[in-house]
Structure formats: structure tokens, C-alpha cells
Amino acid sequence: MVIKRGDQGAVAFSQEKSVSVSSILPRYVTDPTGAGDAFAGGLVSALAGGSARLVDMQIAMRRAAVMGSLAVESFSIKSLLEVTIDEADSRAREVTVHVS
Fold first, then answer.
1. 92: helix, coil or strand?
2. CA–CA dist 3, 79 (Å, integer)
3. What b/e string do you get for 26-60 counting C-beta neighbours within 10 Å, with b at 16 or more?
């Protein structure tokens, strides 16, 4: 189960652990519509074809936070289509991950 908390990040729970991530401060906010959907898409795409192991969930939650932060920077999906791998990686390094 994953609980999205907007600008407060998100937390994922399994039977054994929880993984929480911080949100990423967007460079600017144009339209927050769809940020949660972008987060969910990033999470699902990161987990697709993989397992739900703890390390995978940490990576997936980071990717999800990146996608959510990008989504608010433009109308529609423009910023998601134009992001480079280097920019996405840079943002992923901004995410704080806590496992408990």
C-alpha cells in the first residue's frame, strides 16, 4: 500500500517494512493537476517487470517523486516528455528515503 502525501512526500508499506520518501521541491509550479497520477505512473513503471523487494521499492519511490515534481512544472505532460536522464537523476538525488 502506498499513501501519497502531496508536498509531504509518500510512504509505502509492506508486511515487513515501510519506505518513506520526501517530496522534491519543483523548480517552479505551473499546474499541480496530475502530479499524483504522475507519481503513481513513475511508481508502477519502476516496479513493472521487477519484484517488490525493498531495494526495488526504494528505487521506485524515488522515481515516483521525480515524476510528481516534474508534472507540476507545466500544463499537461510537457515537462515529463522533455526531461533528460541527467535531470531526472539529479532530482532523484534530492529525495530523502527512510526505511523502517
1. helix
2. 24
3. beeeeeeebbbebbbbbbeebbeeeeeeeeebbbb
Joined together, the cell numbers standing for residue 48 give 513493472
Q: pLDDT tens, 40-97?
A: 999 998 888 666 665 688 899 999 999 999 999 999 889 999 999 999 999 999 999 9
Cell of 30: 505551473
Task: Tell me 50's DSSP state.
Answer: S
| DSSP structure string for 2-33 | EEE-GGG-EEEE-SS-EEEE-----S--S--T
Q: Which amino acid is at 61?
A: M
Show the cell assigned to 21. Answer: 520518501
Predicted TM-score (pTM) of the model is 0.86
Name the 3-class secondary structure at 19. Answer: strand
